[in-house]
Amino acid sequence: MRPLGDGAKAPDFTLEGSTEEPVTLSKVLQGTPFVVLAFFPAAFSSVCTDELNVLQETHDEFQRLGARLIAISVDGKWTQRAFAEQNGITFPVLSDFHPKGAVAQKYGVMREDGTAERALFIIDSDRVVRYSFVSEPAKNPGVDRLLERLEELQAERK
Amino acid sequence: MLKQPVSDRDWARGPADAPVTLVEFADYECKDCRASYPVVERVVQSYGDRVRFVFRPFPVVSKHPHAQQAALAAEAAGRQGRFWDMHRRLYEAGGALGDDDLIRYAEQTGLDVDRLRRDMQDEELARRIHEVKLMGVRSGVSGTPTLFINGRRYEGKTAPVQEDELRAAIEDALREVSSA
Questions:
Q1: Is the pLDDT of residue B128 over 80?
Q2: How far is CA A86 from CA A42, A43, A79, A141, B63, in A?
Q3: Peptide bond preceding A41: is omega within 30 degrees of 0, i.e. cis?
Q4: What are the pLDDT digits (tens) for B137-158?
């Protein structure tokens, strides 16, 4: 399965998770130039926790660059709530639980083993993919490339 | 790659012209950082003047409620010329990093506690820590601890750092420098 690449239309979705209300991608995009989607394999695993912690630590920087963060895994809603709470994650951590991995499937990042890839996407306000990256499952991709790409995209908008 | 070179604003130990510079981004409240501390110390000390060690604070404040205060305490101790003493004390605290603990460690370290308290409130220090963190993520810091050897990200295990792997990476860097 190939992940959606640059220029692909990003499938819309509505998912529940750590937030009070379900989150719909197209609605989020009405209020922000970019959304960063971070698919991750499993809540509470050490690499995923580090990855989301670093996203949280740089949350302000993403906001400054016009991007809202959304994380997604196949874990259930209550798991996402506990995971977000324990790690002080304030952006939505969504549950692609039923039908399992349906959203990850549409983005081409569902793995044979039933978890999502560790994948990053930047989606613009036309709901077009502007950056996609799939990391090795055990490797935390960090956020440096995401921030660089957002800066380029910001510059293009001006 | 490490985007921001080591400067005189960094906390550094060892000669500036050492063939190898090891930069660590870490959080005093992070278990893996704490577990890595004695390993990194042992390895760095064993290389003497051949390795310069640089510490950059990366408090993961969303997860660790005391990490920011601890980082500030170390920076503030630095203003009294005692960064490394406080650094060691914070790591050896085994995670007890409440405000009262920090003051106690400062007393035990022989610091001017009133001054430390004042300096910890100084926004300049908080700004500096924030800057260092942003520089860190720009360089690819993706969790703590993250190490760079001569500007290149260390790819060995960091949960915690393994002595043999770190030594091997430093040896590689030394070889690279001597053959350049």
A1: yes
A2: 15, 11, 11, 22, 7
A3: no
A4: 999 998 999 999 999 999 999 9
The residue of A49, A50, A65, A86 whose CB has the most chain B CBs within 10 angstroms, and thus the best one to mutate to test that interface, is A50
Flag whether residue B140 sits within 8 Å of chain A, measured between CB atoms.
yes
Residue B4 lies in a domain: no
- Is A48 a known active-site residue? yes
CATH of the domain at B26: 3.40.30.10
Q: Does A140 touch chain B (CB under 8 A)?
A: yes
pLDDT for res A139: 79
Cα–Cα distance list, A54 to A51, B12, B73, B116 (Å): 5, 24, 22, 29
pLDDT of residue B16: 94
Is residue B148 one of the residues assigned to a domain? yes
For each of the domains in chain A, give its residue range(s) and CATH number, in order of start.
Answer: 14-157 (3.40.30.10)
A154 touches chain B (CB under 8 A): no
pTM of the model: 0.90
Residues of the domain holding B106: 11-179
Mean local confidence (pLDDT), B44-48: 98
CB A116 within 8 A of CB A109: yes
Is B6 inside a domain boundary? Answer: no
Report the chain A residue with the minimal C-alpha distance to residue B68: A57
Reduced to 3 states (helix: H, G, I; strand: E, B; else coil), residue B8 is: coil
Which residues 76-115 of A have a C-beta within 8 angstroms of B? Answer: 86-90
Kindly state whether residue B2 falls inside one of the protein's structural domains: no
